[in-house]
């Protein structure tokens, strides 16, 4: 069993190009909607940049000069710009959420379809709770990335770049003074980003462990109560739960330090604008309107930076989830199982029912053989009872006959044809098995037997 399934350990680069490329392939299925969203993000960014400039223009050419008509015109223009921007944001958010939900559905269906192709031995070795986590929590994390991550971050980048360019176009010296704190802020972001990355991965891993433990205990509650294991299992769960709490607290601690650090950089930048802007204003090298525009822009540039940090956290969780989801998708399906065209192997036109085992060897784990040199023959219409102690291999005979498990040596014949060469779907329609372990699916009796 692979380690990432047994212990949910995630290795590899944070931004693995292979994973990014695979994730983008799902967005490309809805490329028109994605391009529409990016276009609306770009237009909304232009409207965002235009707002403070209109305000500053109204101050310099309306308020300072006492031109009431200009003030009214600029006020109406500003209202129109903000209204148009609000409409763009509404349509953009709806479109992005729509893309995210569709991508999430596609991922969930593909993963569920693939899980159905995996051999029974895979489910023997992997707890159900972890597999359910892949289909629920991990897919939801990827859905959040698509719906509130990638395209939104693109919009934030547009705003940051647009503000920097506009500030330099308005006044180069004041722009340099205002933005000199950005390198320090980037260093802080990289430092805390690495810490947050580790915490996010551990949170995901330990959440999967909680889900797995809960699934096993709730499923096996009858056995737990029968052997008076309630206290012992409670103590074990308490330990697992505290591990999860520890990782959550560590993440909160990093985030609690990171946000104030950004706020300090924001305040420092505002102070620099106030100091240097006042000097330039008193020397008549800067208008009051431009100074106000800079204050608006510097506040506007830190908001998308904070947003990118939050989306960066989403990215951390989504990348860890993507590694697990795509890792599960890489698991090999049953031998000669094709989930799209179930028609491999030789079909049987008429079945008489002669079964023969010839020197069959089979082990669930390595060389710990359950069946050794097993040979017998059952003619058509003949009945045969296999009698033996628990664990002697009676159920294993039925498992290998239906190819739920593959034998290690020997051959099994059905009407003198090797079952390895018979289509699995047809084989399992021919061989009827009544399991000693009763399992009822949700629904009616008809649903369970049809």
Spatial order of strands in the largest sheet: 2-1-3-4
Enter the CATH topology name of the largest domain. ABC transporter transmembrane region fold
Helical residue percent band: 55-70%
> H/E order of the elements?
HHHHHHHHHHHHEEHEEHH
CATH class assignment of the largest domain: Mainly Alpha
Structural class: alpha+beta
Q: Cα-atom Rg, whole angstroms?
A: 32 Å
User: Rough shape?
Assistant: elongated
Identify low-pLDDT runs.
1-7, 339-343
Beta-strand percentage? 5-15%
- The number of helical segments is 15
Count of domain modules: 2
CATH superfamily of the largest domain: ABC transporter type 1, transmembrane domain
Q: Can you walk me through this structure?
A:
It is a multi-pass membrane protein. InterPro entries: ABC1_TM_dom (IPR011527), ABC1_TM_sf (IPR036640), ABC_transporter-like_ATP-bd (IPR003439), P-loop_NTPase (IPR027417), Type_1_exporter (IPR039421). Keywords: ATP-binding, Cell membrane, Membrane, Nucleotide-binding, Transmembrane, Transmembrane helix, Transport. It is found in: Cell membrane. The protein has 450 residues and is α+β, with helices and mostly antiparallel strands. The protein has two domains: 11-198 and 250-329, ABC transporter type 1, transmembrane domain (ABC transporter transmembrane region fold, Up-down Bundle); 355-449, Rossmann fold (3-Layer(aba) Sandwich). 69% of the residues lie in helices and 6% in strands. It has 15 helices and four strands. The chain has helices at 3-6, 17-27, 31-63, 68-115, 120-125, 128-148, 150-170, 172-179, 182-219, 221-226, 230-282, 288-329, 394-401, 424-430, 445-449; strands at residues 355-363, 369-378, 409-414, 417-418. A four-stranded antiparallel β-sheet has the order 2-1-3-4, with helices on one face. It is elongated, with a radius of gyration of 32 Å. The relative contact order is 0.11.
């Amino acid at each position: 069993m692979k380690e990432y399934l047994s212990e949910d350990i995630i290795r590899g680069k944070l931004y693995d190009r292979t994973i990014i490329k695979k994730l983008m392939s799902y967005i490309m299925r809805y490329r028109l909607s994605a391009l529409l969203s990016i276009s609306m993000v770009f237009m909304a960014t232009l409207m965002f940049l235009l707002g403070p400039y209109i305000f500053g223009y109204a101050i310099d050419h309306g308020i300072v000069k006492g031109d009431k008509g200009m003030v009214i015109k600029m006020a109406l223009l500003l209202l129109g710009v903000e209204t148009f921007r609000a409409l763009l944001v509404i349509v953009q958010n709806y479109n992005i959420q729509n893309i995210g939900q569709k991508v999430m559905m596609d991922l969930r269906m593909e993963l569920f379809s693939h899980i159905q192709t995996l051999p029974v031995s895979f489910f023997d070795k992997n707890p159900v709770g972890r597999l359910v986590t892949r289909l629920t929590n991990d897919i939801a994390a990827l859905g959040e990335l698509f719906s509130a991550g990638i395209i939104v971050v693109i919009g934030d980048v547009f705003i940051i770049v647009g503000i920097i360019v506009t500030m330099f176009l308005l006044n180069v010296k004041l722009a340099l003074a205002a933005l000199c704190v950005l390198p320090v802020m980037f260093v802080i972001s990289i430092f805390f980003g690495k810490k947050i990355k580790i915490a996010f991965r551990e949170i995901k891993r330990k959440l999967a462990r909680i889900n797995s433990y809960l699934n096993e205990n709730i499923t096996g509650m009858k056995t737990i109560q029968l052997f008076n294991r309630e206290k012992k299992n409670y103590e074990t769960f308490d330990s697992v739960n505290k591990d999860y709490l520890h990782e959550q607290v560590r993440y909160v601690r990093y985030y609690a330090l990171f946000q104030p650090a950004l706020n300090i950089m924001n305040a420092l930048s505002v102070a620099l604008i106030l100091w240097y802007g006042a000097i330039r204003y008193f020397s008549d090298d800067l208008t009051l309107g431009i100074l106000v525009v800079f204050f608006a822009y510097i506040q506007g540039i830190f908001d998308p930076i904070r947003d990118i940090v939050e989306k960066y956290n989403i990215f951390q969780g989504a990348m860890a989830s993507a590694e697990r989801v795509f890792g599960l998708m890489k698991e090999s399906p049953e031998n000669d199982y094709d989930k799209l065209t179930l028609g491999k192997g030789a079909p049987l036109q008429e079945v008489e029912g002669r079964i023969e085992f010839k020197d069959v060897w089979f082990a669930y784990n390595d060389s710990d053989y359950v069946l050794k040199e097993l040979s017998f023959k059952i003619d058509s219409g003949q009945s045969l009872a296999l009698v033996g102690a628990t664990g002697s291999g009676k159920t294993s005979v039925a498992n290998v006959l239906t190819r739920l498990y593959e034998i290690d040596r020997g051959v099994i014949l059905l009407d003198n044809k090797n079952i390895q060469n018979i289509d699995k779907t047809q084989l399992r329609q021919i061989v009827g098995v009544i399991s000693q372990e009763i399992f009822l699916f949700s629904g009616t009796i008809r649903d369970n037997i049809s």
